[in-house]
Amino acid sequence: NAGVTQTPKFQVLKTGQSMTLQCAQDMNHEYMSWYRQDPGMGLRLIHYSVGAGITDQGEVPNGYNVSRSTTEDFPLRLLSAAPSQTSVYFCATTPSGTGVTDTQYFGPGTRLTVL
Amino acid sequence: QKEVEQDPGPLSVPEGAIVSLNCTYSNSAFQYFMWYRQYSRKGPELLMYTYSSGNKEDGRFTAQVDKSSKYISLFIRDSQPSDSATYLCAMSGDLDDKIIFGKGTRLHILP
Predict the structure, then answer these.
(1) Both ends of chain B: CA-CA distance in Å?
(2) What is the end-to-end Cα distance of chain A in Å, rounded?
């Protein structure tokens, strides 16, 4: 039981490049979300999904795309990377709700630098 | 004014002291209040949550909510070096609402 896994752990991109951050969970949780964490800004919700085939925007969705074709996987795509997207990205899951009373399980994070 | 305000610290206290961590908020619709702990280079983990006003205790941790003042606190008794981490408050208006996080307070417990 691996919990929530994220790959890669570290990534350096050049401005304009695209890439996909992977998130996978083996807990059969319905709710998955992506956050970014910047110094002095706290955690901010990018996109979330309440189940396979359903996604919605969070607080800071611009520049990111998501899809949820299976319960297990929730990839985050950067279409054209910008320096403002330099951040630590966390994937999180909960059994059903948004994590208010259910424990929200976070992955180890992906540290992304855009030059 | 940001919805959730939290002093980033760092806060340094000696081992064994009582630690008080605080957040203020502006949205009176918030009803659920959470505290997360985040160790360096790790993802956050939920410590505890409370609903509406009042206190909740879990071991050495006590969460307190004062909705009239829009102020929440986390107290850590008998602080240990292993409590050194960043503590994030978080809030939500409803069970299905998105969670809004504070910036986090860095805490150092000095042996």
Answers:
(1) 37
(2) 36
Name B86's bridge partners.
B38, B106
pLDDT tens figures, B47-66? 998 988 889 999 999 999 99
Q: Smallest Cβ distance to A98: which of B41, B96, B101?
A: B96
Over the stretch A24-44, which tens digit does the pLDDT of each residue have? 999 999 999 999 999 878 899
| Residues of A whose CB is below 8 A from B104 | 42
Strand order in the sheet with B4-5: B4-5, B19-25, B71-76, B61-66, B54-58
Instruction: Give the one of B4, B98, B103 whose C-beta lies nearest to A58's C-beta.
Output: B98
Nearest to A32 by CA among A64, A65, A73: A73
Task: Tell me the mean pLDDT per 10 residues along chain A, length 115.
Answer: 90 96 95 92 91 93 96 96 97 82 87 97
**Interface mutation vs chain B, best among A48, A54, A100, A111, most B CBs within 10 Å:** A100
